[in-house]
User: Fold this.
Amino acid sequence: MSTRPSAAWVLAGVAVATLGGCTSVEPGQAAQATGAAPAPSSAVPRPAELSLDGVDPCTLFTDAQLDALRVNSEPRGSAGRDGGPMCSLDVDVRAPYYSYYVEAVADADLQDWVAGERRNPSMRTEPAEVAGFPALLHYARTSSPGDCEVLVGVATGQTLRTQMYPTDPSEFSRQRMCDMAVDAAAEAVTTLQAMRR
Assistant:
């Protein structure tokens, strides 16, 4: 592999689920009982402001981190779904095949996915914490999971979006997809912290 550059919300009545190392959240714990968007009662304190301005998401992973995530191809940059620069990280040497998509969204706060213009009633949003930063799990309200993304509030008005997207969703539970997305997000946040010191 070539050398690459090194480097929560608490909702009313809902406990924050700490993610990252070994702890995981069960989908549905922080469920919205109806299609109404939850209102955050307080935010998990952000330990630092990690600006995404000028950040290429492909530079947020060291070789060691890519190996830990089992990524076997060169990260590929492109324009992201939410308007920011995005990086695709593929795991496709042997099944199960999947990709991580990591996007720097420099014009949206976590609140935008909860009750703002990015809110989608067909998606479930759950509070989380990634590497000490407030975050949200975000996935479709379906019985058959197709993917899971983690939205990390790394700076005021800025969000790091990390999605785990399998080629064959039947090979993963939603919990596993979310855990893997959290792992990738935590690696990216760790590198971003090192870059911003």
About this structure: Residues 1-42 have pLDDT under 50 and may be disordered. The first strand starts at residue 10 and ends at 11.
